[in-house]
Amino acid sequence: MTVLDLFAGPGGWSQGLRDLGLRDVGIEIDAAVCQTRAAAGHTTIRADVAAYPVAPLTGRITGLIGSPPCQTFSAAGLRAGNDDLPLCHQALDDLARGNDTRPLLRSACTDPRSLLVVEPLRYALRLGPDWIALEEVPAVLPLFEHTAHLLGAVGYSAWTGILNAADFGLAQTRRRAFLIASRTRPALPPEPTHADGGTCADLFGDGLPPWRTMRDVLGCPPGVVITRGNHASGGSRFSTTGPSWAVTGRARSWLLKVGNRPAATRRRLDQPAPTLLFGKALNDVSWIDADGTPIRRLDVTEAAVLQGFPAAYPWAGSRTKQFEQIGNAVPSPLAAAVLRSVIPAAVEVAA
Predict the structure, then answer these.
(1) Side by side, which strands form the sheet with 285-288?
(2) Mean pLDDT value across residues 277-306
(3) What is the CATH architecture assignment of 3-195+328-350?
(4) How confident is the model at residue 138 (pLDDT cuts 50, 70, 90)?
């Protein structure tokens, strides 16, 4: 099985495949991202997806993965992609007719990066992989629906929709659009492994555990202060260097704040993190105390773990570049769930 990973990023899809005992070959243009992938042991071709020759890959690709850059469609950006949607739809239709109008349409886009969202269809039509899995920000769902329609015309079963990563074991309520397609089996969304508040067991199953929380995955770093007042035993325990949690309501506990406005999202440690967006908002993702007093910024390791990566994942590049890679990556627990639903015998391979 040869899996081609377009816009491969630091390895979210790759880690998901690794969980299933599989590997991919990624195409990625960013030098720092390629260094991260190399250090993590993921095979990478450094190239521009939009310019890479597809013909030499014909007959060699079983699966196709793609997470096109989302900056032009993201709520964290300027959303120039909204202005470019008609041009993207036109490019999809033109590719399906065998007419490559990308150079002309790219020059007409408000942001040329918007047109990268059509690249997975170009590769799919040329390579005919057995299965396809694509991910993007929710605003791209209409383009995924259009792509799914065009894939259906050439023999694929396809599903599109929004998935919440918290439903698949990530300690973050990250919502993303997905397209799943297969030539060999019905395309269906993955079954959730967790639920908000959990679900009770019934005649049809054991129920689902509740969403994982930041406390579940981050824990508390070493170093504890115990306050006992006038008593020799008991008291409250507080971490000296990181988030702490205590049973008493009056005890100090940390919250994660995302954003710099008065209405910025705040989440307690016993909740999942909100969607982590770094980019220009990098310095606005920070720990605060119950009174709203800033404590410190979220660090790279914490961000990586909240995105589903191992704590020791080998990030390359500057601090800003590392956070950018983390925020753009597909969380590997969500990637693995999607891949299990579309790869034939993936569950058996993983076992």
Answers:
(1) 265-268, 255-258, 285-288, 294-297
(2) 84
(3) 3-Layer(aba) Sandwich (3.40)
(4) very high
